[in-house]
Amino acid sequence: MSFNRPDQLLKLNDPFDICIIGGGATGAGVALDATLRGYKVLLIEKGDFASQTSSKSTKLVHGGVRYLEQAVRNLDWHQFKMVYKALHERKTLLKNAPHLAHPLGLLTPCYTHWERWYYRIGMWLYDKISGSTNLKSSRGLSKKEIQLEFPSIESHHLRGGVLYYDGQLNDARYALAILKEAERLGACILNYARLDSFELGQKSLKIKKVVFTDLRSETQYTIPVKAVVNATGPFTDAVRALANPRLKPRMKVSRGAHIVLPAEFWQGDTALLIPKTDDGRVIFVIPWRGSVLVGTTDDPDTLSENPVILEVEKEYLISYFNRYSAKKASIEDISATFVGQRPLLQVQLDSAMNTDTKSLVRDHEVEVDGRSKLVSIMGGKWTTYRVMASDTLDVLEKEVLRVALKPCLTKDHALIPLASVDLPFGIPEDIAAHLAELYGPAAGEVYAYGADRLISSEPYLTGELMYLKEHEMAETWEDVLARRWGISLRDESLAAKLQATKKEAFAS
Ligand SMILES: Cc1cc2nc3c(=O)[nH]c(=O)nc-3n(C[C@H](O)[C@H](O)[C@H](O)COP(=O)(O)OP(=O)(O)OC[C@H]3O[C@@H](n4cnc5c(N)ncnc54)[C@H](O)[C@@H]3O)c2cc1C
To answer: Is this model's pTM higher than 0.85 or not?
Structure first.
């Protein structure tokens, strides 16, 4: 069986223990954990995998320096525990898929002596909390050192800075890697499969069956399951309402906009943390796959399938970039934009829904609906997806399946493709780098599908398209451009050129 739709549809004849709704980071994590615990798993995703929040993150594997600051300032133990958990996950996330995640240096510029001390102590604490899982120790830098090592930064009024380390991941492909591994171990994983409703037991009102539509063939399926996990991120409340209309909404979405600039605007491989904007946010300037990612915002929003950046958001991000960058950019320089919606958890059910989203804690919670037994995993961050999955499975085993807890095995489970075919000697460097970056040890296998370039100056190959359909369940051009290759999030004009090649494999 391969990771493609025809093979996965065949598996629908199998009996299932657990159905997971949602194929973002959270659902993917639950699918792998449950499969490793020995359960028969079905995961359905209404769009493409990671097509919502999980491909539109800032791509940081981090504890969150801002959250640590909030925890210390407000003496908030809950917030502190969340930072601790995330910091301790970073190394695991990097270790398990080294071709998709790596350490990232971040420079915090300081403009007063007081700031130098403040951030130096803050980053020291960040290192200390990480303990043995720290990626690399932070260090203070003088103005001269910054000018020498980081010529991209605007050094006017600068007093010094602090360099610290987090991780950076390819979010969409990381989710795919988790899902592929769950599938390889036996799970049935299906994109373009939308949950329509649940069939409940007549007396108990417990979920007995899931009813979903395969959106590619418009076929509806009704599948018996023992337990259901709702991992639909910002869409969580809609699925909770399907299971039990009496449940009160818990989610609040906040929008986070990013702009992308060409590489020439920020040299080197170190990111910049702008620690405090006039409205109390942090903004990152991050070297990202040959481009520069600037983001993000954090404003309350209404739920949307495809949130689009506003002009004011572009202006806001450009104006902050220009304050800190030696090379100034204008709106016309933006090569791409994307907006994600954070699935934030309202802690108090009766609180007004207009809470400031910046102050909502990014922690997660597992809820079991007493009536339907729907298990909803809500909130969280990309960085903590594995812990969220483990907590979900523990609660599900205890409260729904009522079995003894099985151990979580994901911590040391590598997500590296098994296929390891060497790339032939002498292939063009740009193609080799592109294939190794996206496919890791499977690069040679992908290359064997055909070496012709889609566009003469670019490393994307005609043969790759067949591989993506047969082994990565890509169904549309958007799946390829936005998530398998990640081009439309970085360079909209290149995405349009590639799409114009109109390969029939992805006509829609
Ligand atoms: C702007 C922004 C920046 C961020 N940056 C970072 C960061 O740098 N680091 C970090 O750790 N975290 C970050 N986060 C948080 C992180 O991205 C999210 O916590 C995480 O991606 C949420 O994943 P999820 O699977 O819960 O939700 P999603 O990725 O939204 O997945 C839910 C899925 O459920 C599917 N679905 C919904 N309804 C149905 C249905 N009826 N049937 C089938 N499927 C359905 C949706 O299509 C969707 O794909 C950021 C978030 C945002 C918005």
So the answer is: yes
